[in-house]
């Protein structure tokens, strides 16, 4: 397969105190059968050994690039800096504790290339904090429109690939009290774009045990704020969308508990 003609993939990875997992995350990118990629890791003022581990990986692979921020800006700001530095045709998102299957990029880029899609996502599996895969797999609908997205936060960030030649230079909203990735998908789809799902399990999402109940309520508040600030929904619409979100979120939380 001619990966060069299909285009480079810029992998967007924010990192903050990620020493426990970052090496495995990088290795999952290095293992990709699709080899035309760059991995842009933005360290958000880590206080552990993250930077040293990333720099060690840089020495063995010139496709890995590190940006060290001078002040802590949060994951959305870190991702935005990586996006600004990216020169690939495609943007792919992978957080510093998650992993990809070796054929993830090859299958997804071919899926987009053959169909002319600008936004795609895949199914993914939950893994425990220690790295053991669970039985929980989130399968995806074949497509999601803007109206679908308002009632469903199913898209996993670690599975998303965007064609920035078609969409332009996107940026995540910098509201700390919003869901920044969901806000970006909302912004893109609000312009008539449809996101398409490759319903194949190609990624592993690490579920950490720290403050699970607290994170659930924090996520709910962020989703509400995203409707109001990014989607600019009025109060009745926000309540309707949030009720739909809540039902799906409870089902999702029950599966992963």
TrEMBL record:
InterPro entries the UniProt entry points to: Glyco_trans_2-like, Nucleotide-diphossugar_trans
Domain Glycosyltransferase 2-like: 10-137
4Fe-4S in keyword set: no
Swiss-Prot/TrEMBL keywords: Transferase
One MF term in the entry's GO annotations: hexosyltransferase activity
CDD domains: Glyco_tranf_GTA_type
The family this protein is said to belong to: Belongs to the glycosyltransferase 2 family.
Protein name: Teichuronic acid biosynthesis glycosyltransferase TuaG
Species of provenance: Halobacillus aidingensis
